Amino acid sequence: MPADPIAAVTICEEIHAWEAGGAESAEALSAWVGTRLQAHEEALAALLAVDRPRTPENTLRLYDAAIEQLSLAGSQAGVLNSVAADKAVRDQAQLEAQRVSMAGSALSLNRGVYDALAAMNIGGCSPPTKHYVDRTLLSYRLAGVDKDDATRAHLQSLHEKATKLSLEFSRNIQEGGKTITATADELAGLPADYLARHQPDIEGKVTISTDQPDMQPVMTFASDAGLRQRMFLAYNTRAYPQNKSILEQLLATRQEIADVLGFRSWADLATADQMMGSAANARVFLDKLDEASREGARRETEMIVEFARSRQPGLTEIDQSSRGYWYEQYRRSAFDFDSQSVRPYFPYAQVEAGILETAARLFKVEFRRSERRGWDPAVSVFEVYEEGKHVGRFYLDMHPREGKDKWFSAAPVVTGVRGRYLPEAALICNFPGGEPGDPGLMQYNDVVTFFHEFGHLMHAILGGRTEWAGLSGFATEGDFVEVPSQMLEEFFRDEKLLQFFGRHYQTGEVLPGEIIRKMKAASSFGRADGMRTQIYYTTLSLDLHDRDPKGIDLDGIVKELYTKFQPWKWIDGNRMYASFGHLTGYSSNYYTYAFDKVIALDFFAQFDPENLLDGEAGSRYRKAVLEQGGSKPGREMVRDFLGRDEDFSAFARWINEEFENELAGTVR
Ligand SMILES: [Zn+2]
Q1: 626 Cα–ligand 1 center, Å
Q2: CB 3.0–4.6 Å: which of 26, 413, 455, 620 could bond 424 by disulfide?
Q3: ipTM > 0.95?
Q4: What's the CATH code, domain 343-528+592-660?
Q5: Cβ partners under 8 Å of residue 435, min gap 6
């Protein structure tokens, strides 16, 4: 046995798949992933070969090296699946992601590795190491490692089937865009730059796709109800019918896994190692949310319906496809606020610079633009420094591109490990801009999304100096992951901060305080109803995984739940379940967003509103939460930062803020 156990493992020469040609060539990508998987196997073989008493040094060290190689391969296959220009490379990246995921599920059922880890004496270890071992052993037991060989083989094939179905489901959404056509007249109400980008063809028809930047403005601004409804149906059927049967099979496969492991439902299994603990606890939480938002939502709906009737006499009800439009009209009127009016103050480059500076001050780090290149010329690279020391790197791939996915996400690129790897992470987004001459004027919500994703990014970077790869960055319980992102969103509502980077892209004028106050009043209106949309998604995600999937009536369930939580008229033909992408990653645990919102708002309430960026809370938060990565349970991090468990008081203030405002309801 060599002195350094990791010396037994192939050293990773090139940690960036694209620098090994993996962004241009499917073969190169496959070879790169193959080398990582080989190193993974070598680490496991070395671990199993240890013939001395098991210790973290001779066993956990090798297990963690195996995890590190797996996450390196998985992260970058995932990134390239989202961004590679060449379809052949994206297809290969998907296969590679599948290969990595299968290696992961094989590891999760590897009895020899489990026995080796369980045999370690961890008495004198640090708390993070103990936590790592405890958590790993728990997830082994939840995977069924203690079942007999035949059962383990069966479980593995079920996991592989679920992985394959999940990838297909996501892929169908990614590639399943639809288009609709409209006449120029039907585009009334849409912003001028949108119209400029959507010129009628020779027959006078305008083609509009279901991609976010095309779809969202139609749903918000188009005054033609028929157009909104056509877009709504196209958008909500973009992966239908193909994803209906895939989802049915996926739900059945997950339930079968739960059955084999002795759990009543997949939801109980998937929450067992989370902060939430069980499906029953999730329902208790949902009941509290329902309670906290019901009255506010009732008032909002009343205001919207009354307003819509005053504008359109004879209107009897508002349907799903018109909710966004009437909200926008109401906000313009009641708050004298047009969400288009702030866009000139938020050109992309300025927002980027502003967010970077905000985060740098808050977390006491420095970002320097790097000469390095990413997987595409459009990617910009930044190095992160702390007191002159290089502590991480991130990649910003921020605008739409042919073949790139249509989402907004933060992804690890290299999992940071103290003394071994610098943490690297990426934002993969689809914000306006990126074309020469296009200033990329962003909407309010775009900027909020940018803050959100940057919160994830900071978690990956600042949490990337743990001793173990398996504890690095996002490696908290899955249902704690949306705390840092939603916490950072709140900073965007600060007036001083907004004025610090909201400047008119042509005149340089600072975003006027009065517009900010109107914008905040307008954006806080509709929170209760918005939360009930979340409750609807959350309950759907839970219900689909907490009942017998045999003969499941997907159409019936979505309609029933929508009608229970939302006052707007259901539109028949809406197949949103077929494009509810979070069903693959979150499965039953979509409650994560709402659960973490409650925690994030409580966290944000600890910051001094007069001194958000430079007060003491920023450093304390960074130490107690971000830097920990997954070194301790989320429950402990909450208590470390708050000095208690989270409660609903900050959430209740947030959801009712709109009714405190003297502007609310004064329809002009
Ligand atoms: Zn997020």
Answers
A1: 15
A2: 413
A3: yes
A4: 1.10.1370.40
A5: 399
